[in-house]
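2024-03-11 09:14:02 INFO worker-7 job=invfold-0412 stage=load source=structure_tokens
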């Protein structure tokens, strides 16, 4: 990591990270964000992860994403964001499908992140219609999200999905969410059911913030046998 630690902000051609309006949240977020899985979950432990978070902030990143299931990621953020919490947009998730489980999870997330509010709370990895039905019913996870938003603990609500665009489209019919997190990359247009022409198109019409993940398709785009 010497190249990373020795890199100087002054070496950048531009001193300001480009920003985009995150849909109806009306928040200007950095073009690039820092995800809490990948590097923060697996690369080098606490010190290195905190260095990555703080360096990202120095370079203009103000959108930070995590989840309770990303190992110690939330703990790293809690330590790294001390003093700058009010200057960043912090997103986390719940992978629980019921109200009570989600409420317990947000309580733990707030403690780990050392904050009294979350800018974006998302229902995590919706991949089956049965999950959509679970979170949407009485005492489902969506009820927890709405309660926390009403109390001001959570500012905005979102959904995420990895595999099936139709699942996210169905969930978008059941509530007017603020954001959607889904795969967006150069391979998408060649998929049998692409996210770009389905979820992204619909979300854009609804003025939802669109957050792309798997941008480099986990390395396969530039793989010798890739696209």
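2024-03-11 09:14:09 INFO worker-7 stage=emit residues=227
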């Amino acid at each position: 990591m010497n190249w990373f630690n020795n890199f100087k902000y002054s070496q950048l051609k531009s001193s300001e990270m480009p920003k985009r309006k995150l849909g109806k949240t009306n928040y200007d977020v950095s073009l690039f964000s820092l995800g809490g899985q990948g590097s923060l979950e697996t690369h080098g432990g606490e010190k290195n992860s905190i260095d990555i978070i703080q360096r990202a902030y120095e370079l203009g990143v103000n959108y930070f994403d995590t989840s309770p299931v990303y190992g110690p990621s939330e703990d790293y953020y809690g330590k790294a964001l001390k003093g700058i919490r009010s200057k960043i947009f912090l997103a986390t998730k719940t992978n629980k499908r019921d109200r009570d489980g989600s409420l317990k999870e947000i309580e733990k997330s707030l403690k780990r992140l050392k904050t009294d509010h979350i800018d974006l709370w998302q229902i995590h990895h919706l991949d089956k219609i049965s999950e959509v039905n679970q979170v949407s019913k009485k005492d489902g996870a969506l009820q927890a999200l709405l309660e926390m938003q009403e109390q001001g603990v959570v500012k905005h609500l979102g959904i995420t999905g990895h595999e099936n665009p139709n699942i996210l489209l169905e969930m978008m019919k059941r509530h007017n969410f603020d954001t959607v997190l889904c795969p967006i990359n150069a391979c998408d247009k060649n998929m049998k059911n692409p996210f770009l022409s389905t979820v992204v198109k619909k979300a854009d019409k609804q003025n939802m913030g669109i957050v792309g993940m798997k941008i480099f398709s986990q390395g396969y785009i530039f793989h010798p046998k890739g696209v």
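2024-03-11 09:14:09 INFO worker-7 stage=report msg="The CA atoms of residues 50 and 80 lie 5 Å apart."
2024-03-11 09:14:10 INFO worker-7 job finished
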